[in-house]
Fold each of these.
Amino acid sequence: MTARVLRVPDEKYRDKAPGGVIRATIEVGEGQWRYVSLSGDFFCHPKDALSDIEPALVGTPCAQSRDVLARFYVTHDIETPGVSVDDWVKALPKTV
């Protein structure tokens, strides 16, 4: 039996938005998101929206992050008081 090794991305980013601290743990390869984990200390409705956004970003070119996030917020009726799409883009690395 072959042991399975899980690689944990070590690129972590943090930013303060009016609604709270936001965090992004990411891995980028060839200009695309390979791994995305979003978290923070803010309110989000629906509660599981962040875990739905993450797979929507994976495989997306980093340069299109703002558009993907904005579209996702609208189509899934996401509310994060004090944390905007632009705040998320600021929390992501400057490859965006």
Note: The domain at 11-91 is CATH 3.30.390.50 (Enolase-like; domain 1).
Amino acid sequence: MDLWRTSLSDYHGGFEPSPARSFCASRTRATPASGIRPDSKVLSTISDSSGLRIKDLSEMLQIPHQSTNALVQYLKRKHLVEKMGQDLRALYALTEVGRAALVEVTRRQAA
């Protein structure tokens, strides 16, 4: 029995997360066989350019736009990337914290 679902159903009248949301959440935490987490790949790709739109990042990584958007929003909440303007098509770039995190990830992968 899943405690999380049980406690939420007690308070929210049987609320269950959608399968799509559960799938996306599990994918962002997964580490593929390459050992590189999707979020570190996003950081690396953004770092290699002066900034990218989500559409461009999605095309470069060859992953669905919605998945890319979810990853970028996650990284934004963690203060690893920032949007460079208010326009919907504004570029995303690494913050100082994001650059430091990428250096640390790269160092760990090399070890």
Note: The beta strands are 81-83, 92-94.
